[in-house]
Write a structure and sequence with these properties.
The chain contains 14 helices and 5 strands. With 447 residues, the protein is mainly α. The strands form 2 sheets. It has a 3-stranded antiparallel beta sheet, covered by helices on one side. Strands 4-5 form a two-stranded parallel ribbon. A hairpin with a 2-residue loop joins strand 1 and strand 2. The longest helix has 57 residues, at 131-187. The N and C termini lie far apart (191 Å).
């Protein structure tokens, strides 16, 4: 019943409206609005086309079926197609709500899955509890954790306080220790035991000083002069002990002397009575003459010894260096050159080993010491041979030598025998094992 112009105007409005909806749907990324706009524009164009054809109802029927199919597809079958454009806002809101509902369902499914995983991770005692109960227990645990954290913070503060106090105490201890060590240094000690002993000695010294002052007031000048001869109390006590011992010995001697005097008196009386005293008087005179003769003989021997010693000293006084050098050669030979040097010092004879270590004679072994003395004697004989060609007589002088040392000694004697007569006696059969010339006196005796 409408005119053609009204139909064309309406169709134009539908095309423009569908195009606008299409553009809005593209810009808003709303598929539904884009589809509505495209369908509206397409349907309006088709409607205008068939209207202008006049006798083509079939397409109109086809378009109506397409529109109805579109309405069923998007849930618009309960509404008139004329209302679809007016329902665009509601439809868009419905689409948004539908998407939100879908998202909410997905979130619900995700939350249910997370809840199931969380429930599996709970201890068996909490898995069958309700979420509210679990939440309450978690709140309790969180509260306990908060309390534990507060306790840890309190303990940390207390620990810091204790550390500060400890550091301060260490500083005080260090100061006190330094003061103590300074006192130890002044006292000349190194540890607590020595300091305790020092205090005890000092206390004893103070007590002794007080006692000395008291005793000093009682001593006379003569007593002080007598005590000045002693360096300390120990020396005085030792002297007193010796004096008491001597006094006891003297008393014992006096007692024994009295007893002997009594015996002698009795013996004299007895001798006088039987005439033995005269014979004893004559024997005493004979013994006195014999003693005088022997004293004269002894004096002659002593004078001869002094003369010989002075003669030897005069002959060898300027030859000590040569004697020492010769003795060093002999000593080095006897010790296989382990001791190449001999020194005469105020402390005695010292020998120097090849590693420059010095030994006193008493520090040597018995065999090495005997080798040293033999080297000194033979060195004297060798140097003095131009003044007095001494014979060398040895009677088992190497009993402490082993075969190696005895072999060296015999080699040295053969060297000395080139200038001096050397006679060596021994009863040790081991010398037969050495490569030396010997005379077996027992073999001569058997012959």
């Amino acid at each position: 019943s409408q005119s053609t112009g009204d139909s064309s105007r309406t169709a134009m409005i539908g095309i423009v409206g569908g195009f606008i909806l299409f553009i809005i749907g593209l810009l808003a990324n709303a598929t539904f609005i884009t589809a509505i706009g495209a369908i509206t524009a397409f349907a309006t164009v088709m409607y205008l086309y068939y209207q202008r054809q006049g006798n083509h109802p079939a397409p109109v029927t086809t378009d109506s079926q397409a529109i109805m199919a579109f309405g069923q597809k998007h849930g618009l079958q309960d509404f008139s197609p004329d209302q679809w454009l007016l329902m665009q806002g509601d439809l868009q809101r419905n689409a948004e709500l539908t998407a939100q509902l879908q998202n909410a369902r997905q979130d619900q499914q995700r939350y249910d899955h997370q809840l199931a995983i969380f429930n599996q991770q709970l201890p068996p005692a909490l898995q069958n509890l309700t979420l509210a109960t679990v939440r309450a227990k978690l709140d309790d645990l969180l509260e306990q954790r908060q309390q534990a954290r507060q306790d840890i913070q309190a303990n940390t503060r207390e620990k810091a306080t204790i550390a500060n106090n400890l550091a301060r105490l260490n500083q005080d201890y260090s100061k006190i220790y330094q003061q103590k060590m300074a006192i130890y240094q002044q006292a000349g000690v190194h540890d607590d035991n020595q300091f305790t002993q020092y205090l005890a000695n000092r206390s004893a010294a103070q007590s002794q000083a007080l006692a000395s002052d008291v005793y000093g007031q009682q001593l006379t000048a003569e007593d002080r002069q007598a005590l000045a001869a002693y360096a300390n109390r120990d020396e005085l006590a030792m002297t007193l002990s010796k004096t008491r011992h001597q006094l006891d010995q003297l008393n014992l001697t006096i007692s024994q002397t009295h007893k002997e005097m009594q015996k002698d008196k009795v013996a004299i009386d007895s001798l006088v009575e039987d005439g033995t005293l005269s014979n004893l008087e004559q024997e005493r005179a004979n013994l006195a003459a014999k003693i005088w003769y022997e004293v004269q003989e002894w004096l002659r021997y002593q004078l001869a010894i002094q003369w010989v010693n002075k003669a030897l000293a005069g002959a060898s006084s300027d030859r000590y260096p040569a004697i020492i050098r010769q003795a060093e050669q002999y000593f080095a030979l006897l010790t296989d050159h382990r001791y190449p040097q001999i020194d005469l010092t105020a402390d005695g004879i010292k020998v120097v080993r090849k590693d420059q270590e010095v030994f006193l004679v008493e520090e040597l072994s018995q065999g090495t010491a005997e080798q040293l003395y033999i080297a000194l004697r033979l060195g004297f004989v060798a140097v003095m041979s131009d003044q007095a060609n001494f014979p060398v007589i040895i009677d088992d002088g190497f009993v402490n030598f082993d075969n190696i040392r005895r072999q060296r000694m015999l080699a040295l004697l053969e060297k000395i025998a080139e200038k001096n007569q050397v006679i060596y006696f021994t009863a040790d059969d081991r010398i037969k094992d050495l490569d030396v010339k010997i005379l077996d006196l027992q073999a001569f005796k058997r012959e």
